[in-house]
Amino acid sequence: MDFDHPVWEDEKWIVPTDWNIVSQRFEGWSSQAQAVIKVWAPSLPCILQPAHVDSNEPTKLLDKPDLATWAFWDTAPASTYTRGRVAMLGDAAHATTPFQGQGAGQAIEDAAVIMTVLSKVQDLKQIPNALMAYNQIRRPRAQQVVETSREYGKLLGMQSEGVGEDLEKMRENLETRMHWIWQRNQTAQLNGAVELFAESL
Ligand SMILES: Cc1cc2nc3c(=O)[nH]c(=O)nc-3n(C[C@H](O)[C@H](O)[C@H](O)COP(=O)(O)OP(=O)(O)OC[C@H]3O[C@@H](n4cnc5c(N)ncnc54)[C@H](O)[C@@H]3O)c2cc1C
Q: For ligand 1, atom 53, which residue shows the shortest CA distance?
């Protein structure tokens, strides 16, 4: 993962690449990483040989015709998810990098909150209040998920400040870093939105 590459020139988000480019990108990495990319592998088990190569011939790992570079995108934090009777949710509001596996989960949390507050609406005029309550409850958490997902990517890519390639620090961090997401009391989140809605009337 290359977090220092903020500009993406290609129209497509998955573009073909080749062994030489990958090899250049990983220059200066640890000997283990270099070995994965650069090793000539006549002695590898057949299962690790690229399918297009005769297994009796020496080959390079990652030297594959379908090698590709993927662009990972997330959304900048929006100042609001709602205006009037319109609201954004899911990826439209807070698309995230994939490292925490949270894109769909956060979209479901949005939907649960919106459904709950809208079910309390007694009059069409109250819809903006209901959506504002959704915005107040969901936006901080969803945007924090986007932020921590980026940090998670750096951690896994050994580019996290203060952790780097220190496996012990990485282990400590990984043991608990998802707890705030997984252990959120969902009922409290729904009730919080309903309370905000009631207070706004
Ligand atoms: C490869 C991959 C792996 C993923 N793995 C995970 C995972 O493990 N865990 C996880 O939580 N998340 C994962 N995600 C993220 C997850 O898929 C998304 O966060 C989630 O689908 C977002 O849901 P959404 O309803 O907001 O958007 P979408 O699922 O993108 O739905 C939007 C829908 O709107 C439709 N649409 C677009 N424009 C229009 C239009 N003008 N008119 C009508 N319809 C329109 C689209 O066709 C689409 O069906 C993954 C994503 C990818 C790409």
A: 98
The model's pTM: 0.85
Residue appearing with tokens 């705030």: 180
- In tens, the pLDDT along 116-171 reads 999 999 999 999 999 999 999 999 999 999 999 999 999 998 888 899 889 999 99
Specify the number of domains making up the chain. 2
Cα–Cα distance measured from residue 102 to residue 110, given in angstroms and rounded to the nearest whole number: 12
Q: How many Å apart are CA 78 and CA 91, to the nearest integer? A: 12
CB of 101 within 6 A of ligand 1: the answer is yes
Q: Are residues 126 and 41 in the same domain?
A: no
3-state secondary structure of 87: strand
Range of the structural domain that residue 34 is part of: 14-70
Residue 104 alpha carbon, nearest atom of ligand 1:
11
Tell me what pLDDT residue 28 has.
80
Same domain, 99 and 194: yes
With respect to residue 153, please indicate whether it lies within any of the assigned structural domains.
yes
Question: Do 152 and 65 lie in a common domain?
Answer: no
- Pick the residue whose CA is nearest to atom 5 on ligand 1: 101
